[in-house]
Amino acid sequence: MTTSNVNPLVGYGLFLAWAVHDTEELAFGPRWLRENLPLLRERFPGVPEAVWKAAESVDEREFALAVGVMATVVGAAAVAGARSGGRSAFYQGALNGFGLHALVHLAQAAAVRGVTPGSVTSPLVVIPFTLWARGRLRRAGVLRPTGLRDVVTGLGVAAGATVVAHAVGRRLAPHMAGRRPAPHMVGRRPEPRF
Questions:
Q1: Among 158, 32, 165, 48, residue whose Cα is nearest residue 103
Q2: pLDDT tens digits, residue range 12-50?
Q3: Which H, E and C letters describe 31-55, residue by residue?
């Protein structure tokens, strides 16, 4: 499998850090967007109307499905990283995209002058994990050089994966709407969302 001395947590940790981060997004994303959409429209009048329409149409089910799709991508990258001792280009690209996307969350929080979904775990989990993992890869001699082109590619891949995940979520959500609850959930009250 691997001949390097990179701790498997460097690979699998990508998925763990992502799961912590996306739990924050899952808990607050759609509701935060609904509550703040009027303010966002007012503050950013140059954003095309199609963007606002798409944003306001995202519900919890679609968002959860999109997170599930992204879990598959990040999970596959984490396994590739662990199995290759961190050498996998797919893993390193995902790691870079994950770390860079945290900067997008911080920029969003700065733009709205407040907390946004993902902006709490970005500096506490995403950035520290990315720097730690890249440091481990560097010490093991397997970190690929990263230049401006790689940064742009990493952000592009992260954005593309997000768009695809939401497109799949949007496509699957209507099919999930009519599903019956699992037998263990019949008769149970839904848990409150905060």
A1: 158
A2: 999 999 999 999 999 999 899 889 999 999 999 999 999
A3: HHHHHHHHHHHHHCCCCCHHHHHHH
